[in-house]
Amino acid sequence: MIKRVIGAVFALCILAVIVFTVLGRGTYTSLIGTGAAAGVEAAAESADLPSAEK
Fold this sequence. Notes:
Layout: H1 2-23, H2 34-46
């Protein structure tokens, strides 16, 4: 009985992960890339800090 309940809870968790993955498809935004690098460079320039690329 306990194994059946644990199995059902585990199956529901897997199903929830699959559903949330499908619902969130295409909404991922990486913080690493051109947008983040441009933001760091702009912050460095506004604070008069030396940039790594200069």
